[in-house]
């Protein structure tokens, strides 16, 4: 699959997420217990969308006497607003999902990693705001924080949006209710 087709698929997932968000539906959460993570970035993303709308109005006003430039930038600005809303919508409609045999760790339309429960050797609630560059760790921070750390007995393969594959044995993620996620993952 080419880079362009991967990016196009990512964009389609963002806009599909926007449709699901407007319909107040989630994707894949019916298969198990859902754990959201979008609350930690909601205000920031909606603030960014608001700034994009203000910029759209301002540029539209400044270019009112140049119709071609006005129309081109209006299309690009509206696309940008929809893209930013799609980023937030993807995080809202694609929560982490715990099933009977796996934890599906997600981050918007960017990451969808299935971790078998048998591969998880340790789980802890751990708030981290700095993240290293460990080759075997996947950090899925929201608002520059992770709240749950998973240590794996055997590495799982994470594939990036552009198709780069790497094996990870530590996954750090953010969950709105990290305590509930840790309790659900702790046998006992």
UniProtKB/TrEMBL annotation:
Lineage top rank: taxon: Bacteria
Membrane-crossing residue ranges in chain numbering: 44-63, 72-90
Keyword field: Membrane, Transmembrane, Transmembrane helix
Membrane recorded as keyword: yes
The UniProt record lists the keyword Membrane: yes
Protein name as catalogued: Integral membrane protein
Organism placement in taxonomy: Bacteria, Bacillati, Actinomycetota, Actinomycetes, Kitasatosporales
